Amino acid sequence: MNVDLGTVRGQLARTPGVLDALLRGLPGDWVGLDEGPGTWSPRGVVAHLSHADRTNWLPRARVLLAWGEAEVFPPFDRAGHQAAEAARSLDELLDDFAAVRAESLHALDTLNPGPAELARRGTHPEFGPVTLAQLLATWAAHDLDHVLQITRTLGGGYREAVGPWRAYLRIMRPA
């Protein structure tokens, strides 16, 4: 499937509202749930998404557009969100994500990549050559991956409470 910039942008624009509707007002023990060691809570995921918008997607897109394959993308610290997560309430994290995403979408609109730019290649530090279209599609899929993670984590909070219905609930099955 070809990457349609309008669809990607629309997807990215919806994520803050989806997460706000899903998480705002939930008790702290629920938004602090995780799936075990080395996994993130919904709070952590929101902080991670803000961090990724600030330090990953657009910085890499700019490097790709400016340098092509000649410059390797800057490294991304996947856990770089932890200080912000610890210092802020969930409401503050959700508000920050909404603001950062709005800025990101404005910056993407300013870049306004056309077909030639979407096909342009850059160099990922692990994967090697990638296109701008792949980077933007991954940004949208990354959001969806984390929405899935959050819903699976919240669903897991009901694992014992649902009793035998667990057998019929895919959300209760191990990832």
From TrEMBL:
Domain DinB-like residue range list: 11-150
Signal peptide feature range: none
Pfam short name (any one): DinB_2
Superkingdom of source: Bacteria
UniProt-recorded name of the protein: DinB-like domain-containing protein
